[in-house]
Specification:
Two copies of one chain form a homodimer. With 325 residues, chain A is of the alpha/beta class. Chain A is 37% helix and 22% strand. In chain A, the strands form four sheets. Chain A has a five-stranded mixed β-sheet with strand order 3-2-1-4-7, sandwiched between helices. Chain A has a five-stranded mixed β-sheet with strand order 10-9-8-13-14, with helices on both faces. In chain A, strands 5-6 form a two-stranded antiparallel sheet. In chain A, helix 8 links the parallel strand 13 and strand 14. In chain A, helix 5 crosses helix 6 and helix 6 packs across helix 7. The longest helix of chain A is centred in the last third of the chain and has 25 residues. The radius of gyration of chain A is 20 Å and the shape is globular. The two termini of chain A are 13 Å apart. In chain A, 52% of the residues are buried. The interface between A and B is large, with 49 and 49 residues.
């Protein structure tokens, strides 16, 4: 029996859908704009329509629908809580809506959890059973696979590595995201410029301080700007401490890092690796450990949504994915 | 078929063994001294002897042997690495030794992981599928159960909450254990006394500063000593931040806290709860969450070792324990 899976990637801007065979090979794909500004009902109508575009003539070839959506969401109930980039969405029972429309089981996962499943099934962590995926972008999200099972927790809220609390100076508690995500890097750059730092970074944004973002900092660092290099190194050290936490708690075999900020490459990865070496309890935790860039591109959310459906929302061992191939 | 389990608790001082029925009800129990100072071979001989004391006449009623041992150890291979309180033990393949002696599968777990299984099967977390157990004593250890499965990781090294790195002041990285375990509390008390703090704590140890330990600090705090209360509150805040990390990563339903320092009760638990409330990302992570004292006493390691064997070293869902009852 060759049961197919429909995958949907609901983003703030792009709406994608695809159909995969039982081995998670792509059969067909469509994309359109989300049209988030038109509100909830309009987006739901567009989502149903794009699912119909990838639906085969014989509906019963499809086993289930997997959906990657922006968090916060409850993966157990399929309810989207209130994503900042989907205006008008509050406690939307998306899973139930899609199930009722198509008469198929629907599984919903946040984008980082879904990306973890994607990297574990077809990306950098293929064949691994103990995986931590981290995305460093406008926020810092994560997905953890522990002995083949996606970690979601009692209410499906896990795992949020970006929100690990850290003390940054005597008594003041911040978080990994607030110190090391894209907006934090941009904020620190602006602050340094306002206090007269010697850097050519401002030229990259035509002198407009408010336009300075993490991408510009990354570009400046690649050009050898020492302030920009230091800012990425600080972000790397903070992310590295988060990884040490994950190593000590989960003892994974691979850390996969994706998201826009990770495109700065070794400028970020070298300080991450150094921090891990310096602060890990024992070399046993890093024996055989790989810290690698994400391997999948734009399709990561679609592949992950398909893997989510194939594992019944992460409740099944990813080993079952291999068995399907 | 009523398969029985033999449990062993190998401690630095005490050596215990017991036999349980399939429902983890105690059938017989023995205890003796470990005799750790007599060296490896002597301890192994004593362990084999005490196992024979609890072995039934018909050997084939026994399904397996579970052993709680001091870490660090590799639960996958059954090798004890080099516990500080077992002199002469270095990379001892305890699992293989016991299996060869008795012809039964042997499962080995570190004391905190085993305690987590015990609390989840018969203690404060009974019936829970998402559990974090923390022991605060001379060290800080932890055991995490994620959707019914013990988290051990690729080399069986998880989970070490005590070794989560934390920045305590600008740039200096410490750990939860180094800031909040018993020796840290004692160290901070001595430091305060040396710099002239106003406290009656010293009277509790007959004026001998070097004798001051976490137990004395706990006693002083119970008597209303404000420095001692502040020291426990600091430990509680640090442990609380570790719990916030666990909440954000695992989204558990219960945190169980045991170990000697936890006997200080609300003096430690109140600042823990307050820190969790203050620093959790969203109240969804604490909805329905319980933070409770461990319920099992001295037998926690024996019950846990039995649960470890019953779940095949934590590789089986704890739900299977319930099915055995």
């Amino acid at each position: 029996m060759n049961k197919e899976i429909i995958a949907v990637d609901l983003g703030g801007t792009q709406l994608r859908a695809a159909r995969y065979d039982a081995g998670l090979n792509l059969l067909t794909r469509e994309h359109t704009l989300t049209g988030a500004d038109d509100g909830l009902e309009a987006v739901l109508a567009r989502m149903k329509a794009i699912i119909r575009l990838v639906m085969p003539a014989e509906h019963d070839r499809v086993e289930s629908i997997g959906i990657s959506a922006p968090g916060p969401l409850n993966s157990k109930t399929g309810v989207i809580v209130s994503p900042p980039n989907l205006p008008g969405w509050h406690d939307v029972p998306l899973g139930a809506i899609i199930e009722a429309e198509f008469g198929l089981p629907a599984y919903i996962g946040n984008d980082a959890n879904v990306a973890a499943l994607a990297e574990a099934s077809q990306g950098a962590a293929q064949g691994c059973r103990h995986v931590c995926y981290i995305t460093v972008s406008t926020g810092i999200g994560s997905g953890i696979i522990c002995d083949g099972m996606l970690v979601t927790g009692q209410a499906g809220l896990g795992s949020e590595l970006g929100h690990i609390p850290i003390i940054v100076e005597a008594g003041r508690v911040s978080s990994i995201e607030l110190e090391a995500a894209g907006p934090a890097i941009a904020r620190q750059a602006k602050q340094a410029l306002r206090t007269g730092a010697n850097t050519g970074m401002l030229d990259l944004v035509a002198g407009e301080l408010e336009q300075l973002d993490a991408r510009a900092v990354g570009k400046a660092a690649a050009n050898g700007d020492s302030l920009a290099i230091d800012l990425l190194a600080y972000a790397g050290r903070i992310i590295g401490l988060g990884i040490v936490t994950v190593l000590h708690l989960f003892n994974p075999q691979i850390i996969v890092i994706g998201g826009g900020v990770s495109k700065t490459g070794e400028l970020l990865f070298a300080p991450i690796r150094q921090t891990v070496r310096e602060h890990v309890l024992d070399s046993a935790f890093t024996a055989g450990l790989r810290i690698e860039a994400a391997a999948l591109g734009d399709d990561v959310a679609l592949v992950g949504a398909a893997a989510l459906a194939a594992t019944h929302g992460g409740d099944m061992d990813i080993r079952n994915l291999d068995r399907r191939f």
